[in-house]
Amino acid sequence: MLLIYVVSVIDMRESENNRVSQSFAKGALIMTICMVIVKIMGAFFKIPLAKILGGEGMGYFNSAYSLYNPIYAFATAGLPIAIARMVSGDVARKRFKDVKKIHKISIPMFILTGTLGMLIMLVGSFMYARITKAPGVLYSIFMLAPTVLFSCLISIYKGYYEGLSNMAPTATSEIVEAVGKVVFGLGLSYGVVACGMNEYYAKGTVFGKACYTEEMARSATLPFASAGAVLGITLGAVAGYLYIYGKYKMTGDKITLEEIENSPESRPTKKLIRMLLEISVPIGLGAIIMNFAGIVDSVLIQRRLNDIMMTNPNALLNVYHGLIPLEIVERQTTHIFLSGCFGYMSTITMLIPAITQGIAISAMPSVTTVWVQGDRKKIKQTIQSIFKITTLISVPAGLGLSFLSYPIMDLIYGSIGKGTQPCEIYIAAHIMTVAGIATIFSSISTPLCNMLQAVGRVDLPVKLLTIGVIIKVLLNYSLVGIPEINIQGASVGTLVCYLFVCLMALYYLCVETKIRPDFKSIIIKPLISSGCCAIAAYASQGLLSRIVSYKIATILSIIIAVVVYIATLLLTKTLNRDDFKMLPKGDKILMLLEKYNLV
After folding, report:
1. Using alpha carbons only, what angle is made at residue 487 by residues 483 and 493, rounded to the nearest 5 degrees?
2. At 570, which helix (H) or strand (E)?
3. What is the chain's alpha carbon radius of gyration, rounded to the nearest angstrom?
4. CA-CA distances (angstroms) from residue 576 to 283, 383, 387?
5. Report field, pTM of the whole predicted structure over 0.90
6. How many Cα atoms occupy the beta-carbon half-sphere of 407 within 13 Å?
7. Are 521 and 384 in contact (CB under 8 A)?
8. How many angstroms separate the CA atoms of 82 and 281, rounded?
9. Which residues make Cβ contacts (< 8 Å) with residue 21, sequence separation at least 6?
10. φ, ψ at 332 (rounded to 5°)
11. Closest Cα to residue 166, out of 255, 259, 236, 77?
């Protein structure tokens, strides 16, 4: 409660009497900073958690999340985005009575879908455990199921505040949730392992089950330790809900009585519900499809890996030359272990899409507002700004992850796999070589799809994502089943899927808005600068690792790459005056750069 109070004080800097309405730049900055903080907290959670659980335990953890994601997408069904779009459109039209009514009718909708989603997850957990051949995942699923409900309760207020162009409550609730996850999740997971091992040393059992070796005992604790970590995530969601609910009760939405009195009469409740469903269902279907692809991937990948181990184990084991521990092979959990290695990599690569997701959240109300107003110049400027910011972040980051895959994994997970070879690190780093490139397109796809939804084409993203998922599933099934490729085929499927979605979404955005963006400014120049950045990182890491320690060389190479990237952006004049004006203290930065003719 103290944490919630402190964060709420930081977040309540707006005037007591005036409604906050942030520009796209400010909203995007708030959400980007929030996502960075949340992902850093996520790293503080998952990296120590990986050390506690190891590859097998992370397999249980990731498997539970693969079931959660599509059910959560079903429970929310695109409602937060639909609410944000309708609220921002009605605010632009001064229809404040409709704004109030939209919020009111969203409450029972979220409670109903959240409760239903939680029950589906609980009931479906038994079939999921049988299909994945991982009965130990049940405990994690049971602990994670309530998160569906509390995430829906949080969404009641997230979509509403985002539609009002006030990103601060959403951002702060995300941070509260992340802090709660770290504190509770790590504490519970570590406590479960310690408790189980203490019982083994005292009685030779782990939670009542006889164990004959220390390795067997540790393995027996992992399903319960994963469940403890997942329970921490649920408690974090509870904390996030308590914060945002308290925020709304204390400060409201700042819509004045005068604005309500001067507003046109609200539309009938049935009409507003129908409008919400017309927008949310296609959006929700897109989210469900992508998240369902996650559960299909998890099931399909683990089944295909298990099939290889049943029919041709030597072919797969020879790929990794002894990197997979013998006890994992003997327990027939190699498929769970490799899935856990994929999870190590995902912890790093998911940072970039999370940042651009913050941009996408802020983009929705901004593009909707200028689209409703019909100002073509502002529409073009807003779309170009969103796309350029996205590429400036995602392209160098994705190339960096690919070029420095092993150094980055070693820097972050350096204490894992101590011994003759770094087991999980090596496997995860090899996967990230391709996954880093895939991250670029997955990061760009979300803002593009959100902009399509903002201009009224809510149907297009779901169609594009459906085709993308079909491509992904077919490629994954084919490639993962090849012993020499195995788990690494999943990254190829992801890459091709999101490349297709990005290209088609950009094409249709240009068609729908009848705007031709400046591709030289938003794609070609950022790509050139990013290429120089990646080459500088790779070359400097290779040279410096001969002089200083491997980890220090990695840190220095990242710093050098950032300097080269900024310098190349300035030399190619990728950033224009409008871009700098969007930054904090942008006018002062602009004056300094103009002095040296760098803009």
Report:
1. 110
2. helix 550-571
3. 24
4. 34, 15, 14
5. no
6. 24
7. yes
8. 9
9. 91, 164, 165, 166
10. 60, 40
11. 255
